Amino acid sequence: MIRKGLKNFFVNLKYYFTPLGVLALGAILGLAIALPVVAQSLKELLEYASSVEGVQLDFAAFLHSILDAVLELDWQNPSKALATLISSEWLNQTFADSIFALVQNAEPVAEQILEKIAACVSSFVVAAVVIIVLSILGVFGGFYVTKYLVRREIARRAFWKFFLVSLVDAVITAALPVLVVWLGALWEPSVYLVVLALPLIWSAIALLEAYLVHGVGKLKLKDVITVKSSALLMLTNFLIILIASAATSVISALFGDLVGLFLGLPLLEIALIVGSLNAESFVKETAELKAEVRPAEA
């Protein structure tokens, strides 16, 4: 099972650019919507500042001042830097400092300029939210498109079986917490035992769902769901996640956390997808081998 699972992962790395491309598409759509709004707001702010009597604003110097402030952020910690970059407090302060550093004799209309800055910053925040939301939708879209492609590769199933597995999964997901509470009421330490055994339990559940899709009428349930097969599935999926995480860490170490996140995300997505389908792949292959053996025996 381990060899088959790892093979599934490495073979399906050919879909690496699918989640990456859908993510990029989401980000590009966000930028296409956000940039005109940002440009218009920034233009109105600069036009107002320049319209003040006796004021001369150097647009290039203003942008240079903003760029310097952006570069001063801690980009060794990309998530913190990006959170700061889209915060209204940082934007208000940075825009105010940049404009008043370049605009002379603006004190009489400082309050009005600050109001314009606040309006401009609001549009920046909205634009950032649009980009983030569409990028996140790109991540989810890429995940499901990739999962569809990977499923076709290793574990096709009829559409009605999707609803069957979804129903079983919903029942088990709802029943498992109830079972844990019930066991805890009978014997409190059992809760800790269930938590420790949870990865193994989920592997057994995945094998049960795979059996319902690919094994009913072809295999015996006891041939599919065993402690050994559940443990091997758990180990296989752990190794796949470990490989994807290690590759992401290497990329981050070489090129920075932001690049590592962007380039490593498809690896992690494919690892999760393959991990979710390895049980079906195992049961499907076992059923096919069993079907080949029967005619030979006959």
Walk me through what this model shows.
It is a single chain. Helix content is 85%, strand content 0%. It has helices at residues 2-11, 17-51, 59-71, 78-85, 88-102, 110-154, 159-186, 190-215, 221-224, 227-255, 257-297. The mean pLDDT is 81.
Short description:
85% of the residues lie in helices and 0% in strands.
Question: Any key phrases for this structure?
Answer:
298 residues; mainly alpha; 0% strand
Query: First CA to last CA: what distance?
Result: 27 Å
Strand portion, in percent? Answer: under 5%
Oligomer: single chain
Mind summarizing the main beta sheet?
A: none
Assign a percent range to the helix content: over 70%
Radius of gyration: 28 Å
- Averaged pLDDT, please? 81
Principal-axes geometry comes out as elongated
Total helical elements: 11
How many beta-strand runs? 0
Q: How are the SSEs placed, and which strands pair?
A:
Elements: H1 2-11, H2 17-51, H3 59-71, H4 78-85, H5 88-102, H6 110-154, H7 159-186, H8 190-215, H9 221-224, H10 227-255, H11 257-297
